[in-house]
Automatic annotation (TrEMBL):
Residues 2-262 form the F-BAR domain. Residues 110-155, 340-367 form a coiled coil. Residues 451-509 form the SH3 domain. Residues 287-309, 409-448 are annotated as: Disordered. The lineage of its organism: Eukaryota, Metazoa, Cnidaria, Hydrozoa, Hydroidolina. SMART domains: FCH, SH3. PROSITE patterns: F_BAR (PS51741), SH3 (PS50002). Keywords: Coiled coil, SH3 domain. Signal peptide: none annotated. This is Formin-binding protein 1-like.
Amino acid sequence: MSTWGVDLWDNRDDIEKHTLNGIEFLDKCSGFIKDRIRIEQEYAKNLRRLVKQYQFRKKEELPFTYQESFKGFLNETDDFAGQREVIAENMQENVLNKMQKLASDLKADRKKAISTLNDHKANLDQLQKAMLVAKKKYEQASEDANNALKSYETASQSLDLTKAQILKFQKVSQDKGHLAEKASDEYKLATDNFNKAQTLFYEGDLPKTINNELQKPEETRIEMLKNFFIEVSNIQQKVQPIISRCLEGMVKAAEICNPAKDSLTLIDMHKTGNSVPGNVAFEEWGKPNASSQPTPTPIAKTRQKTTKSSVFAMSSKKKDVVVNENVANDYSDLPPAQRKKKFNKAISTLNDQIEQLEKARAGMIKIADTSKQFGGDMASIHGQIESNTKETEKLKNLLHQYNCYLSAMDSSDPKNNSRRSSVDDLPPPPVDKQADLSDRQLSPGFTGDFDDEMRCTVIYDFSGNNEGELTVYAGEELIVIEEDDGSGWTRVMRGQEEGYIPTSYVQNI
């Protein structure tokens, strides 16, 4: 297997430059991931801010399906933003932090490896320098020894020199020879040391350091970079099912929209229960007409006034349910359908409050039992229990009143009263039995004294659109001139008018 230490032993500069470029590239990738995380965080933050801006208030009622749909859509969008935050957090923890740590470790390892190589190279250079110095000394000593030997040989052949002088030249030659031998030994030792160090450096320290501390970290960097890119993809894939569920939730929230149901909701919210005005009869000029009598108008209901000191809010969550301290509000100023809705709402609120008070009372009883065992303040606890009991009884009394109101409405409602039949199901009024209205022939036994006759009160508006029927309004008092004979119709008189009305629409006095 080819390695940098063997194949690129003489290209240290290129190796060092390549590893530096690799670390800088890793820093560049870290910058990309960091910016990606910032984008995800800002995206999630902006989504959450957008959801908060358009979110409904906590106490706001949402009667329509399109409102519930939008609320669900906002909730799913908020969850979607949360998943973008999860992506950013996982990228920060599993990718960016590790990339930055890897870059830091690689820089430290590279610096250490280069320092080690420089130390080995400096030691080798020092040995080489010592070898060159020893070589120079050896060359100089050898030259001096050779010159001394030549001088001695010349002196020994000269006839002019004494023996003592010749011996002196001999001694100098011998000394120079010894110095040359010593310099030779030193040079040889320095050369051996350098060669050993050079072999160790180029065949051991250099390839080992390059392979282990430069090549392997570089390969590790590339492998880790691959893993980081894969991890970024895996992080998104892990949350993708949740994101898909958020998107599916948005679709389901959209499918909540139901136009028909919203239309019925609007009817239920604002339906008054009043009848449509009847037709106006034609009045022939110059001839009195029974229908020319002023049309009675429904009795206006007096709006119930309550002072601020005599009312209290039954619940902070349902502030529109306002009652007297001891008397339930009958909402007499509202139409029947709205009254029933208010009654149901008040009953629901009271049931919740009573349930909370009973739970609190049970808790206080347990505390009282514990305090009794350990000698606690029983008077204070009993006072709280007594106050709780009084409040519960008061709310139960109000609940009973509202239930009575609701029962009265249900019993008098034509749609719920079993004694009343639908007007559409009734046979036509017995006009064949009815006397000519213009002759005012009353029922047998009618004496003409209205004070002695049976009277009734109209409890529901009725539009007499057919022959023989009489239009009446709730609250009117009429004279019964012919009781119901089983046909479902009662013949009544009002002033100069008479006709048939459904028996279930009146109540005898």
